[in-house]
Amino acid sequence: MSAEFSHEVSSRICKHMNEDHANAVLLYAQHFGGVANATKAEMLKIDSVGMDLTVQVSEETLPLRIEFDHNLVDSEDAHHTLIAMVKQARTS
């Protein structure tokens, strides 16, 4: 896979995360994005370098970019990385 995920791959991952793992997306925003007071987050896009979220803080919706600790190789790498990030956020 190239350095950028295709629109289809990004959309599929985001849809899955938002529908099935909304709590994990919120954890990413709170822990890795430094927005501890976020009450809701949505994944908009994922690429090999990071993910773009929107974050709800009080009445305001803010954009948030979270970069990965390495460049993702493919969607399987994204899957494993997102799981590892959730585990890290939960144990910190």
Question: What attributes characterize this protein structure?
Answer:
3-stranded antiparallel beta sheet; alpha+beta; Haem_oxidase_HugZ-like_sf; 92 residues; 3 helices; Heme iron utilization protein; 3 strands; Split barrel-like; DUF2470; 46% helix
What does this structure look like?
There is one protein chain. The protein is an alpha+beta fold and 92 residues long. It has a single domain (7-91), classed as PNP-oxidase-like (Split barrel-like). The protein is 46% helix and 25% strand. The chain contains three helices and three strands; from the N terminus they run ααβββα. The protein has helices at 7-20, 22-32, 75-91, and strands at residues 40-46, 50-57, 60-67. It has a three-stranded antiparallel beta sheet with strand order 1-2-3. Helix 2 (22-32) crosses helix 3 (75-91). The longest helix has 17 residues, at 75-91. It starts with 6 loop residues before the first helix and ends with a helix.
In short:
The chain is of the alpha+beta class.
> What's the rounded overall pLDDT mean?
94
SSE succession:
HHEEEH
SSE-based structural type: alpha+beta
Q: Helical stretch count? A: 3
What is the CATH superfamily label? PNP-oxidase-like
Distance between the termini: 32 Å
- Tally the beta strands: 3
Shape: globular
Q: Which CATH architecture is right?
A: Alpha-Beta Barrel
The CATH topology assignment is Split barrel-like
- Our Rg estimate from Cα atoms comes to 12 Å
| CATH class value | Alpha Beta
**Domains, number:** 1
Approximate helicity band? 40-55%
Strand order of the largest sheet: 1-2-3
Major sheet details: 3 strands, antiparallel
Uncertain segments: none
Fraction of residues in β-strands: 25-35%
